[in-house]
Design brief:
The chain is α+β, with helices and mostly antiparallel strands and about 850 residues long. It contains 24 helices and 22 strands. A 6-stranded mixed barrel has the order 3-4-9-6-8-7.
């Protein structure tokens, strides 16, 4: 311990004597470790941290496999059947996502909510921290009860302990608050950190939800807890057995539909979309850290060479090689620990600023779990120790290989013995260039992919379009007539405002991923040959196509004459027209939703419009049809339900000659005039909607590009350091060459060629590495090949240019040196 303390004090003194070197190494490692720690905090919070439920590894999601579409939700009728007939689960519960207008003493707002069966909370193994959850008896009795989230309790009720038994108004109906969930509770696990459930109410299925009319409404979900000893595969077999029983209870109109059961681990379902991206980012940032380590190793090696005479003297006086190695490793550990603490501070500062989390894509799940906790801090500490030990080993062993005779020669300042380690320094730089080129090539592929996506026509014109989401409460808008009165009033008031060009309503906004899908039948299909196929659909009102800038390719759009007492009409997109009636005009053809046995009326196609992207522009276009909201018979063969047949909510779309931001207050005031209690949500320009859906690709592209830029700068720094040090070692040689008549341009060329050789070798190895990892990134690319020769060529050219730039300053210094002074100093 005494020897260790002595070595530690000596290492600290040595580092203190060279503050520039120490600061450079600490900053290099700090940035590398900080970036790696920050990305690891995402990986740990989203992928590695257990879900905040009791024994989360036993939780699964249960769904249907319908045709070629796996992992679909279930129908309302299936919830009870699966609950009672399966034997692989200790408990099962059903739920459905929804939203409510929350009103009362404060301003009305739209909140995300969920309807739960009473068994969901016990299945998850989480109970309220205040109050209780509702019971099966209360659910069956349709009692208006509510459990609220911790965030809602904090924001709206200010942690009031007397919130229990108070009333909350949802869709203008009072519900009694009976419980508050813990801060960490989040369910359903929605793919997005901006949409978190804040209210849970009893499922209390209504009779129409269980009727034959809604037997094909796949929109409900189920969560279950596996019994001890039961595997997900065994549970899937059990669910599949019950699915066959469920098909026997289908109404005659659904006889052509076949389902199978699906069982998915809840954890895998929650992170499935985020896992590939996070893995890629972690590998990319690890590459940057590797380059930083190589750079630091090169700096430590240069420093070791400068201290070769000191090592030679100590070894000549009998110092043991183990002492030299221990001191070198201690210096490396001190530098890496300082860099690790600095990097941890960088990562913690980013995590402490909660607004930085909103830079993440909205689809990123479990964002609230991201934190710099003990696990992340331990990771940073171990990473610092590992980098310190690895970076210091090469310089330590290089010090032991010091040539005592040459190093001890009096007056020799640039000994040839130091050049024996030139190959090691050059090898480090070559590996740096190779690794940086791999990241640079991947970054170029991501950038090209993002550019290609942005160049795709979304099928509509988002400029000068304002959109706003809304949901009409069923309590006041229980009929189609009431919904139409609201729609008509808003359009009439907006149409009279200056600058407004067109106004429309839709239940499915393009580029938002909000469109529903339904099976459909075309009149020319024989019943015996009918196959299950889906198409997206949208119910529209007003001048929707003009408002969204969707081109009409054939036929006409909807008019005021398309009413409930006139023949039913639909408009299809170009893809559906091509797939359903190949080689023919779709105008005049007939179709209806559902299978051929469903007793729905036929609707005539009166128009064909351009394909619109339902989600991101890098996704393929789907078949889609549109129906006028004034013709609810298209959606249902009966209007006996107490609920409106057309969607009582969706999006208001408004095209204006003015900037859309300037119309936000106008839209809000007019909607408030029509219904003062209605809360609008996500009032924003359509450009922002597109930006949000493109955020995952933009996020990954930006980070990969930032990592590539960092790797490029580190590689340039490494080239400069090695070339500059090599020039300093060859001072005498360069002076002799110049004294013998060598031109200064020849000296500069000599230095530049040495840098270019390392760059060429590194680029060659980097190209091979890029080809090797191309398969890993292929799934993230759009309309670009991971092995595009132009991409590789541009990356190599950029790297070579940067290498020449890094070698230019040492070359100029060598060429401008005075040979007499150089010879005098040796």
């Amino acid at each position: 311990m005494y020897a260790f303390a002595q070595d530690l004090r000596f290492a600290i003194r040595q580092l203190w004597k060279t503050p520039g070197f120490t600061l450079t190494v600490v900053l290099t490692l700090g940035l590398g470790i900080g970036a790696t720690t920050a990305i690891f905090s995402l990986v740990e919070g989203i992928l590695l941290r257990p879900l905040p439920f009791s024994k989360p590894d036993r939780l699964v999601l249960l769904g249907d496999h319908l045709g070629k579409s796996p992992n679909l939700p279930v129908t309302a009728r299936e919830i009870g059947t699966y609950t009672n007939a399966t034997s692989a689960f200790s408990s099962l519960g059903g739920y459905i996502n929804t939203n409510y207008e929350l009103s009362g003493s404060a301003l009305p707002e739209e909140v995300d909510a969920a309807r739960f069966t009473a068994s969901v909370f016990p299945t998850l193994g989480v109970q309220p921290i205040l109050g209780r959850a509702f019971t099966r008896q209360e659910e069956d009795a349709h009692q208006p009860l509510a459990v609220i989230s911790y965030a809602l309790w904090l924001d709206r009720y200010h942690h009031d302990p007397n919130v229990l038994n108070s009333s909350v108004v949802l869709d203008r109906k009072p519900y009694t608050i009976i419980g508050v969930m813990p801060r960490s509770f989040e369910f359903p696990l929605q793919p997005g950190h901006l949409n978190q459930t804040q209210v849970w109410i009893p499922m209390s299925l209504a009779p129409d939800e269980l009727s034959d009319q809604h037997a094909g409404s796949w929109g409900y979900h189920m969560v279950g807890r596996l019994k001890d000893g039961v595997t997900p595969g065994q549970a899937a077999e059990d669910v599949n057995r019950v699915a066959h029983q469920i098909m026997l209870s289908f109404p005659a109109s659904m006889s052509a539909i076949h389902i199978r059961g699906d069982v998915t681990l809840l954890r895998e379902n929650a992170v499935a979309d985020a896992r590939p991206l996070l893995r890629t980012l972690f590998v990319a940032v690890s590459v940057v850290l590797l380059i930083a380590c190589v750079n630091v190793t090169g700096l430590l090696l240069v420093r070791s060479m400068r201290r070769r005479r000191e090592y030679a003297v100590r070894l000549a006086l009998g110092a043991q090689s183990g002492v030299i190695i221990r001191e070198s490793v201690l210096e490396g550990l001190l530098l890496s620990l300082a860099g690790g603490l600095l990097g941890l501070a960088f990562a913690a500062a980013a995590a402490a600023i909660r607004t930085t989390l909103h830079l993440l894509p909205e689809t990123m799940p479990r964002v609230d779990s991201i934190a710099i906790d003990a696990t992340v801090a331990t990771f940073a500490l171990l990473l610092a120790l590992a980098t310190g030990a690895l970076c210091s080993l090469a310089p330590a062993f290089a010090a032991l290989r010091t040539n005592l005779t040459e190093s001890l020669k009096e007056g020799v300042r640039t000994v040839t013995g130091a050049s024996s380690h030139t190959w090691l320094r050059s090898a480090l730089v070559v590996s740096e260039i190779a690794i940086a080129l791999v990241l640079l090539t991947i970054s170029g592929a991501f950038l090209r992919s993002f550019q290609n996506m942005r160049a795709v026509d979304p099928g509509f014109r988002p400029d000068h379009v304002l959109v706003a989401g809304y949901q009409l409460p069923l309590q006041q808008y229980s009929t189609d007539a009431a919904v139409e009165i609201f729609n008509h009033a808003v359009i009439d008031r907006l149409a009279g405002k200056p600058g407004i060009i067109a106004v429309g309503f839709t239940n499915a906004l393009p580029a938002s991923g909000s469109s529903g899908k339904a099976t459909y039948t075309i009149e020319s299909d024989p019943i015996s040959k009918w196959q299950l196929k889906f198409a997206a659909f949208a119910i529209v009102y007003g001048d929707y196509f003009h408002a969204m800038g969707i081109p009409l390719l054939e036929g006409r759009t909807f008019t005021l004459n398309d009413r409930s007492d006139t023949p039913l009409v639909v408009i299809v997109n170009q893809s559906m027209a091509r797939h359903s009636w190949p080689g023919q005009s779709a105008i005049g053809k007939r179709m209806h939703i559902g299978n051929p046995h469903k007793g729905l009326p036929w609707a005539t196609v009166v128009g064909v419009v351009a394909d619109t992207k339902l989600g991101s522009r890098d996704e393929p276009s789907d078949d889609q049809w549109y129906a006028p909201a004034q013709q609810p018979a298209i959606l249902t063969s009966s209007s006996s339900s107490n609920a409106p047949s057309v969607p009582a909510g969706g999006y208001i779309t408004l095209r204006s000659a003015l900037p859309p931001e300037s119309m936000i207050q106008t839209l809000r005031s007019i909607v408030a005039d029509v219904d003062p209690l209605l809360a609008l949500q996500q009032v924003q320009p359509m450009d922002d909607v597109i930006s949000n859906v493109e955020a995952p690709r933009r996020f990954s592209t930006t980070l990969i590009a930032a990592f590539a830029l960092g790797a490029l700068l580190l590689a340039i720094t490494g080239i400069y350091a090695v070339v500059a040090f090599s020039v300093s070692l060859r001072t005498q040689e360069i002076a002799v060459r110049m004294a013998l008549g060598a031109q200064r341009t020849a000296i500069a060329r000599l230095v530049l060629i040495s840098g270019a050789k390392m760059a060429l070798l590194g680029c060659g190895l980097g190209v091979l590495g890029s080809l090797a990892v191309s398969r890993l990134v292929r799934s993230f690319l759009f309309a670009v090949s991971a092995t595009d020769p132009l991409l590789y060529a541009s990356s190599v050219v950029m790297m070579l240019l940067m290498a020449l730039v890094a070698s230019l300053l040492p070359a100029i210094r060598a060429a401008s040196a005075d040979p007499i002074d150089a010879l005098r100093s040796t």
